[in-house]
Amino acid sequence: xxxxxxxxxxxxxVEKLEPLSPPRVxxxxxxxxxxxxxxxxxxxxxxxTDTVRxxxxxxxxxxxxVMNITDVGHMTTDQDEGADKMQVAAxxxxxxxxxxAEHYTRLFLADVDALNVQRPHVxxxxxDHIREMLDLTARLVERGCAYVTPSGxxxxxxAMPDYGKLARLNLSGQEDGARVExxxxxxxxxxxxxxxxxxxxxxxxxxxxxxxxxxxWHIECxxxxxxxxxxxxxxxxxxxxxxxxxxxNEIAQSECATGKTFAKVWMHAGFxxxxxxxxxKSLGNxxxxxxxxxxxxxxxxxxxxxxxxxxxxxxxxxxxxxxAAQKTLQGIRNFVRxxxxxxxxxxxxxxxxxxxxxxxAICHDLNMPQAVAVVLEMIREANRTREPRxxxxxxxxxxxxxxxxxxxxxxxxxLPPTIRSRVAEREEARVQRDFARSDALRDEVxxxxxxxxxxxxxxxxxxREREES
Length: 469
Ligand SMILES: [Zn+2]
Fold this sequence. Notes:
Largest sheet: 5 strands, parallel
Strand order of the largest sheet: 5-4-3-10-11
Structural class: alpha/beta
Number of strands: 16
Bound molecules: zinc ion
């Protein structure tokens, strides 16, 4: 196993990952609330989550990845006030919350599949784990960390001496005044519901020792993480906006219940922004992966685009930046598609140091901009020296990058070698902006009965049909 260094939000430092029982790494990442389409800002977080797992696996760890689907109890404010987002969506769409959840879960999975985001080993729905949530809530009530009121069972944040440690909240300050108006049953504005009661019009309800109701959002993640990964997990991640409320509350309720550290390492992905504004549903500036497809973008260009900034930094989304990412990805794919068969046997001497650079980059807190720079350097070097034996290294890197390079290669293995080498040469001519040469090569290929098409996925070659001659 190779050492992996990760920025831990809890310590605010880059630390060497020290799993409890290596090579196993237990990893929990917060999943979507399935009340609407996910937007590209959310998708950046899921690409990040997948990259974390791929990097750890590349480094030799055996990752057990659990992600939740929130299908009940996430209120319209993260601070636990307002209405359940699922209930609001059900009324909006005149469906049951179960149908809404089913519909948007399917769309979510289609999006992440298109981005080559690997499915977690365990994908757990909140509504399938109500029992675990009730058990954890009961434990907190027994330990005096939660109190029962007519409107719900609330976690008592003053019962946890270091409440606020993840976000380093200033609890003595005035900041609570700026928050939404807390429910009058709460003893402290930051207290939050573990179990909601007294909402007879809510469509999803379960019996509990305190009456019929439904779980709060935060308890869901704690209960499911512990159910599948144990009371202390190695790694927990989510979006940066989860730090001050959701993750703070996950820590509080888990650690008060068990007396143990909940997660050893916390990782958070930065926002995707438009201009200087974050993309969010509440701001109405969001768009989806299908919107991008409608503009001629390949989903994997978006994945590649995510690698153009470090995961913790904000990434500014523009059509121009996405187009640039798509163009670079096309270049990589075209190289992979049309490199000669000999590119698969052996390895050029310049590859070994680049392999080392690639591994060093990803294992130092997922430096993906550096990792893709190594990929491009390798292709440049292969073109410059006309020594193409780098494909195996590219396929190896793609275990982390997830750009589907092996699939791209296998699409073209049916092409005659002479055609493939001319297409590769034309790609190189285009990179050198030698358009006369590039046109000449296209004509040569056409004369042999093959048509070149420049598509969002890169150059495609197909046999010429009779009627096209
Ligand atoms: Zn969560």
